């Protein structure tokens, strides 16, 4: 107690003690997270009782509902597993149901029962991949349930949730009526937090413009709506006290209505504090209110400490509260009172605010998203002044859309429709520019800390003068250069990505050379967009020197087609220079389709065969197969021998039969050896025979296959052959992405934070 009393007295002597308390609280939560305790870490929870069968019955109250074209996601709280008529409490569940299985209409607040497969939420199995657990755990969702049967047990179990759901549904109908389908999806995301009808095209357009924050329910939304509602109530001759209480209550209800995201809750708390300060005639301190909201949010869910939306929301406000007043002190610059003076004042305010916010958000955006909108800064200056009008128009259109007739709804929506047309026009114009998205890669934590250290030093140094200014400018330039610098992990890095039942490997020499071998999956939807491309962005790869396609099977090529299509449609800043194809029997149509896609994406097309060589410095890639064009697809797979100094790897695609025999003979005659063998055909029992292993003498084998795949890969017969030679065996279905890093002396194998070394 004495220690607590001393700490309390010290904090009370500190200016803004809540700020200090927030930093201490965050540090304590981080240390608790390092212990691995469930509530403070991302450790997987255990079910409340041992489940003998995969299928379970779960009950719970629906608190969120997301409807898509073919599926519906229901989020259940106050959940229980029902086993032998007994209830066992369990954490919140995300239920996924095919729409045809939703025989009962369901709304938020309904008590439901679902029969299906209960699963733990997975971690990302590749660098750069969206981490589902990191997203859902802070939001207190700890389980997935693939629903097979569904039933509503009791309607309106939670009356507040039910009322909110009815308001949401009516507002959605009104917005669609007033704005139409395309623009209605954007307004629903902005006003209600409903992104089910936003569409990938619109979402991407806002990313390219660097204005994705406009689509999220944030402090800007709550500030515009909250203070707008307060002023309206005051004009209606309500007292300041009544207007303040009603406005605060309305914003709490609105925050819950839109899903209670971290940014919305933070904004609601800060708005309530500002109203409290107004009513009590106390000074409102921006940083103290921000700190209080951080303490309360982290007390409710400590894992928000690692959540991108939480960090971005608080970072943006911190930029306005801490950076802006120091770099751009109020009243320092005088403006004329004429029209041009007012315009210049508003323009400067926008520029100063953007600089202040981005000085904090730049490393955060790079760390979580690996790319930046090149023109985002300028686009925000054009867009942000109109967001308030758009929000009010969106609400007005949605409310008026509930009335009979279309005229009033369209009148209320007209300003919003015009503004959205303006946004879409800007987005499409930016998309046509030569460079619109800049892939930065993911900076290391120490680079971010160094940047923030320099920024803090600049803000804390109060001395002025030309030399001081020049020193600050030089320090900031150095911090920015270091932030964008990427350091290669070794002289050669090869990463075997987890793409489910499929194949994809990335070869990196230093920081400037990159080749990809295959890219596709038969079990993972859009593996190119959601697994391969995010990895390349996370690594800071802006240009792929070439993609080798071993053969034309879907599980080796569909991800490549996705990426080429995205490049053609200017949905990514990635470039691919070349495609390396091989001819074989029966795949002409698929090959021509890939060749055409490559040409439209700006690729050069090369055909390679046995004996073809591609070199880049001391990295050499030799094609060992196919020898002729009459082989079948698998039989005629490209076999690629990668060598750099004393390090060698062999990639075998799905090679079999005559093609495999020819490759073995060539390796034997040329006395080729390899350190790492990419096992053929996902670990099929007939692939990788004893003779190949005897000739190559690999020390490690990598098998790319999907979890619970239909073929049972890898087959036990193959595993036994590999084990007989005491090889290290890595399976992407078990260990996620596997990386091999050659430093000139040894190969370091990494997977899921574990390491092994090949001498």
Protein described:
The protein has 23 helices and 26 strands. A 9-stranded mixed sheet has the order 16-15-13-11-10-9-24-25-26. By secondary structure, the protein is α/β, with parallel strands linked by helices. Helix 8 packs antiparallel against helix 9.
Summarize the structure.
The chain is α/β, with parallel strands linked by helices.
Layout of helices and strands:
Layout: H1 2-13, H2 17-34, E1 55-67, E2 71-83, E3 86-90, E4 92-98, E5 111-120, H3 132-136, E6 141-154, H4 159-179, H5 181-192, H6 200-209, H7 219-235, H8 240-257, H9 262-280, H10 286-300, H11 308-327, H12 339-369, E7 371-373, H13 376-400, H14 407-431, E8 437-439, H15 445-460, H16 466-484, E9 492-496, E10 502-509, E11 513-521, H17 527-538, E12 543-544, E13 546-548, H18 554-568, E14 575-576, E15 578-581, H19 588-600, E16 604-607, E17 613-616, E18 619-625, E19 639-644, E20 647-651, H20 657-669, E21 676-678, H21 690-696, E22 700-703, H22 716-724, E23 728-731, H23 732-735, E24 738-742, E25 747-751, E26 754-758
Parallel strand pairs: 4-6, 11-13, 12-14, 13-15, 15-16, 20-21, 21-22, 22-23
Antiparallel strand pairs: 1-2, 1-5, 2-3, 2-4, 5-6, 7-8, 9-10, 9-24, 10-11, 17-18, 18-19, 19-20, 24-25, 25-26
Helix pairs in contact: 2-10, 4-5, 4-13, 4-14, 6-14, 7-8, 7-9, 8-9, 9-10, 10-11, 11-12, 12-13, 12-15, 13-14, 15-16, 17-18, 18-19
